[in-house]
Amino acid sequence: MDRARGLVGLASRSAFIRQAVLEKLDAVERMRVVEVRDVSEKEALKLLDRYLTKHPGVHYVGDMADELGIELRVAFAAAETLLQRGLARVREE
Questions:
Q1: Sorting pLDDT into bands at 50, 70 and 90, what band is 69?
Q2: Residue 86 pLDDT more than 70?
Q3: Residue 80: Cβ-neighbour burial (10 angstroms; 0-12, 13-18, 19+)
Q4: Which domain holds residue 5?
Q5: Are 21 and 46 members of one domain?
Q6: 93 found inside a domain
Q7: Share of the chain above pLDDT 90, in %
Q8: What is the pLDDT of residue 43?
Q9: What residues contact residue 55 under an 8 Å CB cut-off, 6+ apart?
Q10: From residue 8, how far is each of 14, 17, 25, 27, 40 by CA, in Å?
Q11: Roughly what angle, to the nearest 10 degrees, separates helices 72-84 and 61-68?
Q12: Which among 30, 78, 82, 93 could disulfide-bond with 44, CB atoms 3.0 to 4.6 Å apart, if both were Cys?
């Protein structure tokens, strides 16, 4: 611990421990718990379409699924339907 403390330039073991605890608390506070609801592909289609209408721009399906609480498999199937219907498009890099 003394070697690690010296590497990060802290004055004491206590300062090292305090800094480590603060960093861990910060990481825990930034964590998000994603609650996934059981929705049909039809409902997911409505949710994604509504989300894209309210939030225009470029979005990843996984991010929208997290935000809306939709299982990834269902969200990707709904996104594919939106693409096929011309209601969304893939951004070309």
A1: very high
A2: yes
A3: middle
A4: 1-31
A5: no
A6: no
A7: 54
A8: 96
A9: none
A10: 13, 12, 19, 19, 51
A11: 120
A12: 78
Length of the chain: 93
**Are 37 and 30 spatial neighbours (Cβ–Cβ below 8 Å)?**
no
Q: Around Cβ 74, how many Cβ atoms within 10 Å?
A: 22
Q: Measuring CA to CA, which residue among 6, 7, 74 is closest to residue 37? A: 74
Q: What is the DSSP string of 44-78?
A: HHHHHHHHHHHS-S---HHHHHHHHTB-HHHHHHH
CB 59 within 8 A of CB 90: no
Q: Exposed e or buried b for every residue in 58-70, given b needs 16+ CB within 10 A?
A: ebebeebbbebeb
Looking at the domain assignment, is residue 27 inside a domain? yes
The residues near 1 (Cβ < 8 Å, ≥ 6 apart) are 13, 16
CA angle 9, 13, 18 (to 5 degrees): 85
Q: What distance in Å separates the CA atoms of residue 1 and residue 3, rounded to the nearest whole number?
A: 5
